[in-house]
Amino acid sequence: MKKRNCSKCEKLFSSSKPQTEDLLCFRCAVKHFTKGLFSEEGDLNTAKIISGTLTSDEERWLKEDLRAVEGPIDPALDFYNEHAPDHWYEVKCLECGYLQEYCICDFD
Fold it and tell me: Per the confidence metrics, is the pTM higher than 0.70?
């Protein structure tokens, strides 16, 4: 990381990004994204990426978190989650499409 000047507050900060006329330090990037409101984790992560202050460890952790949120790797688990009913009482018949309690199909 090299020392860079923030384009807004003109303070020196360490960044992995090249110096440009629109480079913001972490603090100014957070202010820009939150517009004075409370910051959330996503705002902080975005500010670190934009300012170039995200470390390689933080980048790895963020990627691991994003992969975990994207869903299971096992296709069988993905199929189950995609086709599982929202509630136990909303099981629908695959033949007629009615809720199981109103099913008109004869399975005998």
Answer: no
